[in-house]
Amino acid sequence: MEAILGNQVMFILFSAMIVMFSILTVTSRRILRAATFLLFVLLSTAGLYFMLNYQFLAAVQITLYAGGIVVLIIFSILLTSHIDHKFDRVPAQKLIMGVIAAGSGIALSLTTLLTYNFVPANQEPISVDMNTIGKSLLNYGDHGFVLPFEVISVLLLAAIVAAVVIAKRKKI
Q1: String of DSSP letters for 8-46
Q2: In whole angstroms, how far apart are CA 171 and each of 125, 166, 167?
């Protein structure tokens, strides 16, 4: 009973941290603070993975996302803009439209989650050993991850190049 209560408390704590730091990430007017808040979101997500006993996924979350991408974002910020740059306030019309879009997304997600009939899977659990994970990471077939990793790497490269181009563009 105490273990279940402890798990629920930790889940609520990690969920609250994810929500709070996500909001701080998108509302912060200082770009370096937003990147730091994003780091906390990614680390809290890794905490949820550890709670679910997905140690491999949590380790990937920490090393790849929290480590690699946030460091890359911070270096991009430091190389392309002034560290003390402060963004202008968002106009009220854009803020209202953003709140409407976020509310619509939340309503759609809640409606989908509450009306979907979740059925437990009847499949045998897949063994999670290093051999299976390694073969899955190197396989491009049905249960392989080579193609998704390549697509994500090209997408991230395009996003970083676009961010550098936008940041270095001369103002007219």
Answers
A1: HHHHHHHHHHHHHHHHHHHH-SBHHHHHHHHHHHHHHHH
A2: 56, 10, 10
Helix (H, G, I), strand (E, B) or coil at 61: helix
Per-residue pLDDT at 119 exceeds 80:
yes
Residues 25, 37: contact at Cβ < 8 Å? yes
CB atoms within 10 A of CB 139: 13
Look at residue 67 and give its three-state secondary structure.
Answer: helix
Instruction: Give residue 83's pLDDT.
Output: 63
Query: Distance between CA atoms of 124 and 131, rounded to whole angstroms?
Result: 18
Q: What is the pLDDT of residues 95-117, one digit of tens each?
A: 899 889 989 999 999 999 999 98
Q: What is the pLDDT of residues 9-45, one digit of tens each?
A: 999 999 999 999 999 988 888 777 888 898 899 899 9
Does an H or E element contain 50, and which?
A: helix 31-51
What 8-state DSSP symbol labels residue 125? P
